[in-house]
């Protein structure tokens, strides 16, 4: 069992652009989308595909902006909203939202939520969907075990950050899938600042 932040990211470290759009992600071709005549790059394989990750997920935690993005996306054709994952899910928010089947709301220190996520996952992994600061909140008390990214061959220049913390990671796996590079990292710990440099001024 592990607590894993799994997300897609641009090459320059954004999980959504500055319009909160993911169009850049959905237009990135995977290996099976290659044009006729393209050859799969060496190392291409399905082991790090999102579906393989999801097979071992037992509970989900997600920030409210991501939740609202999913809600907008799934209801744009007028359909009623149904949370798309049949797994115990917590949405972190301070807002008063209408109840949604299969979803609980939580506000506060994620270290207090973590034991409930682990219990609900029942031996499987806890998936931190995002955003990046939520993953950082789990990393702060040492509760983030892995970062699993699908990096797209695109730069966005601005947007929502992948993981706005200073963390040392150790890459465990790498796989190429079309114009995605999938990588799994173990979180080693906080990355110290260079002590030979003057500390940045405090606010
Ligand atoms: N590329 C991908 O695969 C991927 C993955 C995930 C998300 N995204 C995208 O990234 C964007 C959202 O990212 P985001 O950075 O805005 O983050 P987010 O994590 O979705 O939402 C952040 C909000 O969650 C609430 N929150 C966070 N921690 C909390 C806590 N401990 N207790 C209570 N409330 C808490 C706060 O809102 P309130 O105080 O207002 O409640 C906070 O402003 C969306 O556009 C989404 O589609 C992309």
Describe the overall structure:
The chain contains 5 helices and 10 strands. With 203 residues, it is α/β, with parallel strands linked by helices. The chain has a single domain, classed as Dihydrofolate Reductase, subunit A (3-Layer(aba) Sandwich). It has an 8-stranded mixed β-sheet. The chain is globular, with a radius of gyration of 18 Å. The structure holds NADP nicotinamide-adenine-dinucleotide phosphate. The site of NADP nicotinamide-adenine-dinucleotide phosphate (NAP) has 27 residues, from strand 1, strand 2, helix 3, strand 6 and helix 5.
- CATH class designation: Alpha Beta
Low-confidence runs of at least 5 consecutive residues: none
Q: Describe the sheet with the most strands.
A: 8 strands, mixed
Structural class by secondary-structure content: alpha/beta
CATH architecture: 3-Layer(aba) Sandwich
Q: In what range is the share of β-strand residues?
A: 25-35%
- Straight-line N-to-C gap: 39 Å
Helix and strand sequence: EEHHEHEEHEHEEEE
- Rounded to the nearest angstrom, the radius of gyration is 18 Å
Question: Helical segment tally?
Answer: 5
Count the domains: 1
CATH-level-4 superfamily name: Dihydrofolate Reductase, subunit A
- Tell me roughly what share of residues is in helical segments: 10-25%
Strand order of the largest sheet: 5-4-3-6-1-7-10-9
Mean pLDDT: 92
Shape: globular
The CATH topology is Dihydrofolate Reductase, subunit A
Total strands: 10
């Amino acid at each position: 069992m592990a607590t894993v932040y799994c997300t897609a990211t641009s090459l320059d470290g954004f999980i959504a652009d500055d319009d909160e759009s993911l169009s850049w992600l959905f237009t990135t071709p995977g290996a099976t989308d290659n044009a006729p005549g393209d050859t799969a790059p060496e190392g291409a394989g399905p082991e790090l595909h999102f579906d393989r990750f999801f097979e071992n997920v037992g509970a989900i935690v997600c920030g409210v902006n991501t939740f609202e993005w999913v809600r907008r996306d799934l209801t744009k054709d007028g359909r009623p909203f149904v949370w798309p994952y049949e797994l115990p899910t917590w949405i972190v928010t301070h807002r008063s939202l209408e109840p949604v089947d299969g979803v609980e709301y939580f506000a506060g220190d994620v270290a207090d939520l973590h034991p409930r996520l682990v219990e609900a996952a029942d031996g499987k992994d806890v998936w931190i969907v995002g955003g990046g600061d939520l993953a950082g909140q789990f990393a702060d008390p040492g509760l983030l075990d892995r970062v699993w990214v699908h990096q797209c061959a695109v730069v966005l220049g601005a947007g929502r950050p992948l993981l706005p913390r200073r963390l040392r990671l150790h890459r465990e796996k790498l796989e190429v899938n079309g114009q995605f590079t999938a990588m799994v990292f173990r979180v080693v710990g906080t990355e110290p600042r260079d002590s030979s440099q003057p500390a940045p001024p405090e606010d």
